[in-house]
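tool_call: predict_structure(chain=1)
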Amino acid sequence: MAWTEAYSVGTESVPAVGYDLQDEDARALAVPIQELLQDTKGAEDVRRSLEEVTRTAFRIDRLETVLSATGAVSEWRVGESLAEYHLASQHSCVFPWPSGRDLKNPGTSGGGVDLIGFDTSGENAMLALGEVKTSRQQLWPPSALTGRHGLEKQLEGLRNNDDRKTWAVRYIAMHAVGKDWHGIFAEAMVRFLDDPQDVRLFGTLVHVTDSNELDLKTRAKNLSDGCPPATKIRLTAMYMSDQGLQIMAGEQVQWETPQ
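tool_result:
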């Protein structure tokens, strides 16, 4: 699909772009977003790993019951899946171990950095860390951007090497051992170990309302002040209707933020 740009603001070091997503765009995104929500790739890996033991219809049915147990689709999970798809398809990012796999209950947030992976757009991969907020609040900016635990503060912390960056690196390091993507991880770790500021940070707002550059303009300026040269930050906002987010999810969304 074509991403329709609503505005472009920000600074040289922190670009910030807003996109308008119509309901027809949501329909075009529905399949890849639902694959991420349901972790289709992870489920297929499990099926292949158990081919030798699932030789009866009874066992296959039982396994499918386990793999399809997703629970309610919270708005934040749809927002994170949309952000992940956008970064992967438009910015050469890969997120090989989705944080959703570690949720004991898909209706609850796992905490920590939302998206942990790699930017492969350059000659050598670099760590890519993403924070995502989803809001229906009819304010520009919404509190999800500006609050004490809002997107701006979270990105400031990662930019300034807070503990969350350390835990994010530990998280991906522990999952990389023995995986087929360990080579990309090793490339990124060389850069990180030489300079912990050599990372790519992405902040994504999924705002269920009309587009307005007030969401990102000040955030980009604030984050560019004192940003280390080795750290690359990009802000993105995506605007859509309630119906659009539900179309992407494939079912009723559990709303958590007020309008």
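agent: The first helix runs from residue 23 to 37. Proceeding to next step.
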